[in-house]
Amino acid sequence: MRPSKEGNRQNKNVSSPRRTRPVNPSGPDSRPSRSRHSRLSSPPSVSVLDREIVTEDLALFENLEISPKTNPRSFPYSVKQQCWEKAEKVKRRDPDRWRRDPLGNLVFRKLVGCPGCLCHDYDHIIPYSKGGESTLENCQVLQATVNRSKGNQTDISNVELIQKSSYCRVSGRDMDLLELSAYGNVRHGQDSGGCKIQ
Known about the structure:
This protein has about 200 residues and is an alpha+beta fold.
């Protein structure tokens, strides 16, 4: 059996209990007796003693000189560019995109500071914490995993560093795909072989 339409109408008229808001006895627009203007224009209470302390404190900072740091921890952009240029080139690859670190690990320019096998860091040969400067002579491109393993050690051998390298086999096609995804095109180096049209 179907319920009648009147029964449905009666159910629609039933409403849920309403929430009641507390009513402000002086009305919804009532505000404190002080006006906005009077609150903003009141002068701060400063005593003579407070002014003397502030004046003395300011006198301490008058001759303070902030000198620029002569040896920043990170390498300047220009040093990073030159450091990349001095790293070993990869045959048949664009030297602006691919290099090898001193241990022979392949690194991709766009991958900086990540933990992957193609990622690199700009490493202080003599660690910064041991007085190494952020100069081109003290900079090398190094696989990020190796750089993190090296830390600030100076007595670690290349054999130990090679063992800490992240090894990955990367084919020419893989390199092409990385370039295509990072740069939108694939460029090979001048020594890529093949026919040259003149």
